[in-house]
Amino acid sequence: MAKPIIIDCDPGVDDAVALLFAFAAPDALDILGVTTVAGNVGAERTARNARVIREIAERENVPVFAGAEAPLFRLPIEADHFHGVSGLGDLKFTEPKAPLAPGRSAAFIVETLRGAAARSVTLVVTGPMTNVALAFLFEPAIKAGVAEIVLMGGARGEGGNITASAEYNIYADPHAAEIVFKCGLPIVALGLDVTHKVRTNPARMHALAKLGSKRAKAAVDLLRFGETVELKHAKRTGSPMHDQSTIAYVLQPELFQTRACTISVETNSPLTLGHTAVEFRLPPDDPGRVHWAVDADADGVFELMTRRLA
Prior knowledge:
alpha/beta
């Protein structure tokens, strides 16, 4: 039976590949909706980009909702130097034909979870957590409908990728991230510590390029752009599988190793804003609902994604 999920995202090159990956698994994932948020690029472009990817994947049956245009308390910060002006690197595309669904992202999350069976819907969050935080603040009771939250965000041993100590998704809305991490629900956080271990290489890209399908070609184009940007800005080879790792985890969690922890987010310091304090020494009364990914089977992740995109 397909797992009901909501994908909350800010496409973004890696979000776009994650969407292609998820759309290619209809037997395993029942995507109730895609909710977008301002992040890697502005809200209008992230909403447009999700619809572009939906069209490439030929999954226009999945509704896409536009969401928060700014973080809860700070000014927006975009990352178009990593994702290109459009947010989709140098991918060639036309304006999508299918429109946005009526309503806003946070409202859709509220309504969907309000009507869901207890612990039935998985939230997959690959951008700033503004929409999810707003939904939880508006109606806390909806948390009963959440099975778990699988998110991409944070850094511990790796340091940050937007500042010395902060990963972009958390830095973009640290107050929302703190609300989500403290919500009391089961959470699996895939931060830079693990996503930097899952990278493209020539053999993996060759396997994807051989597929030849429209969705596989789009994924290859996006990942090649990611490789170029990673080499230019981080001086590392291979494009890290940041947001794509969330989909791999939801489909095949045994590909990842996690440890129970607590996660607190710095929301005040101008120096370390958005830092994730990941603590493995749990207090006696902590049931260990939050887990931090520490390792991954990189070959397994790429094999899974290649098989799905085929």
